[in-house]
Every structure is written in C-alpha cells, then in structure tokens.
Write a structure and sequence with these properties.
This protein is mainly alpha-helical. Helices cover about 70% and strands about 0% of the residues. The chain has eight helices and no strands.
C-alpha cells in the first residue's frame, strides 16, 4: 500500500469516526460519544488536523456542523496567525514593532501621514522610527 492510499484510508477513518459516534447512541446502544478535539489540540497536531479537514471537505453536507470539522478549520486559521506573528512580531499597526518589521511599508505610511496626520497608525509608525534612531524608548 503506497503512502497516498494510507493517507486516504486515514482520512476515511477520521470521516467515519463522527458518523459512528453519532449513529451508535441513536441506535440505542448507549455508547458514549467522544468529545471533540479543541482548536488548541488541532493547532498543535498538524497531521491530525489535515486528515480531519480532508474528511470534512469530502462530505460537507453531513459534516459542515461537526465540532471537530469546525475546530480543525479554526485551528488552521490560528496556525496561520501564529506564523504571521512569528514573521512580523506583531500584527497590530498600533504597535511600533509592526512598522519596524517592514521599513518599506513604514516609509509609505509616513508619506501618507504627512498629508493626513490623523490616519490610524501614524503615531506608531513615527514612534518606531524614533525608537530605532535612539530618540525614544520602547
């Protein structure tokens, strides 16, 4: 069995788990449902998140409201934000570090701020330059 088939088999197995967990109690067997994994759990378990998302995308009609599908998707968003924050240090334009991480964007912002000093982020962009010049403290 090649790796592609193994991944597909795992995706099918993950797809069937919620179906079995829901159908067993409905059939009167009284089997306890497994609690859905949290967003944090999926964010920290890349392979399981990807497998869950594959299963959810394969059957959105039945699984669109499945808590594990929702949590796996939200975890992907969280992971993307973590990566972006790691690259820039911050995603908040009110933070001088945001502007220090991208000097070209800061230069463009400061040019716009000369025309309209009331624009959002002007103070932080100016402050980032002052901090780098040693004329202000962080």
């Amino acid at each position: 069995m090649n790796k592609s088939c193994t991944v597909q088999a795992l995706a099918v197995a993950l797809f069937l788990l919620p179906t079995l967990a829901v159908s067993a109690p409905a059939a009167g067997q009284g089997a306890p449902q497994q609690a859905p994994k949290t967003v944090s759990w999926y964010a920290n378990h890349q392979q399981e998140r990807a497998l869950r998302q594959l299963a959810c995308m394969d059957n959105p009609g039945q699984l669109a409201r499945d808590p594990d599908c929702i949590n796996a998707h939200q975890a992907s968003v969280e992971v993307a934000l973590r990566i972006a924050r790691a690259r820039t240090g911050t995603l908040d334009p009110r933070d001088p570090a945001f502007w220090s991480a991208d000097p070209n964007t800061r230069a463009a912002k400061l040019s716009m701020c000369r025309l309209n000093p009331q624009l959002d982020g002007c103070d932080a962009a100016r402050r980032s330059l002052l901090i780098e010049a040693g004329n202000a403290k962080r």
